[in-house]
Specification:
Length: 249
């Protein structure tokens, strides 16, 4: 039963286990493809896991995901090697590796102030451009009725709206012009990325790998353009790129 469920979706597998355990929400483990995965559904258990940094580390999960997504051993090692406390760029007094410092970089982006205000304005600007009757009629998933109204699947519409806004807010307009279908490529990858997490053979997970390769290709093209020629991008995007180039990535 578990084998058939795991080839479907993670949600079905987790729901099956929850029913088997009478939905008491206690921690449980499942084995998929030879790997044991521990599942926490109670907020208190999740909080305890995050606090238990002595025996539990999120670094290992990130490193495995990076490897499965195609990162080289050298890149992973560079991301999780301690950086000098007196380095240039973003302050790092404790000498954290970039794999951990990245969270502080994004926290800084979202801290009230100029960086957050600019990001907010970009989201609002994108929403304003997309929440337009004529713009919505251009969507391939929207249909018009006889009275001139528009019908669109809520999930597809909201996914398109927020993903496109985030893409523009963090990378500017250039990324979307390089690949107008990038939003849908990302959404397909996001929907199927659990197959990479569970290390599905490519023969039964070719769609997610194709989406990953397309995303990687357009991002490589984007970052090959000089920063001053990309137009406006979020502070976090620029800062993260600077830190990664500093460590040779």
């Amino acid at each position: 039963m578990h084998g058939r469920l795991s080839c479907s979706t993670p949600e079905k597998l987790l729901n099956h286990n929850s029913k088997t355990l009478r939905n008491n929400r206690e921690p449980f483990a499942i084995t998929v493809g030879g790997s044991t995965i521990y599942v926490l559904t109670m907020p208190n258990d999740v909080a305890d896991a995050y606090r238990n940094t002595s025996s539990l580390s999120f670094d290992v999960f990130v490193q495995v995901m990076m490897r499965n997504l195609g990162s080289s051993t050298q890149s992973i090692r560079a991301m999780f090697s301690p950086m000098p406390a007196d380095k240039d760029g973003f302050p790092n007094p404790h000498g954290k590796p970039l794999g951990r410092l990245a969270r502080e970089l994004h926290t800084t982006q979202l801290y009230p102030g100029e960086n957050l205000t600019k990001l907010d304005n970009k989201f609002i600007e994108s929403f304003g451009a997309q929440l337009n009757f004529e713009k919505m009629t251009e969507s391939t998933y929207a249909t018009r009725d006889e009275k001139g109204g528009i019908t669109a699947p809520l999930l597809r519409w909201s996914s398109d709206l927020f993903t496109r806004a985030g893409q523009t807010a963090y990378f500017g307009d250039l990324l979307g012009t390089m690949d107008p279908e990038l939003t849908w490529t990302f959404l397909e990858f996001d929907d199927l990325s659990w197959q990479i997490l569970f290390q599905y053979p490519r023969i039964i997970s070719h769609r997610v790998h194709t989406a990953r390769e397309r995303l990687t290709a357009v991002l490589e093209k984007y970052f090959s353009v000089p920063a001053e020629d990309r137009g406006e991008q979020a502070w976090f995007t620029h800062a993260m790129e600077h830190e990664m180039r500093t460590i040779g990535i």
